[in-house]
Amino acid sequence: MNAKNSVQLQCQECKNINYITNKNVKKKPEKLNLHKYCKTCKQTVEHKETKKK
User: Fold this and answer.
1) What stretches in the chain show pLDDT beneath 70?
2) How far apart are CA 53 and CA 32, in angstroms?
3) Per-chain mean pLDDT for the chain
4) Contact call for residues 20 and 7 (beta carbons, < 8 A)
5) What are the start-end ranges of the E strands in the chain?
């Protein structure tokens, strides 16, 4: 069984999904919150993990 799952990161300002990354679910079960650059907002804003469709 693989402990890594791919997750999507969604901008909290414009609600666009900008990034896809992997995370280890066994080590970090909580949702990711990262400050990343958003192309549509043209600034660094918080991105949260969302469900993959």
Assistant:
1) 1-4, 53
2) 17
3) 89
4) yes
5) 4-11, 17-24, 33-38, 43-50
By the 8 A CB rule, do 4 and 22 touch?
yes
- Among 4, 43, 2, 23, residue whose Cα is nearest residue 33: 23
pLDDT at 24: 87
Q: Are 11 and 40 in contact (CB under 8 A)?
A: yes
Whole-prediction pTM:
0.80
Would you give the DSSP letter of residue 41? T
CA distances to 22, 25, 26 from 45, in Å? 20, 24, 27
Share of the chain above pLDDT 70, in %: 91
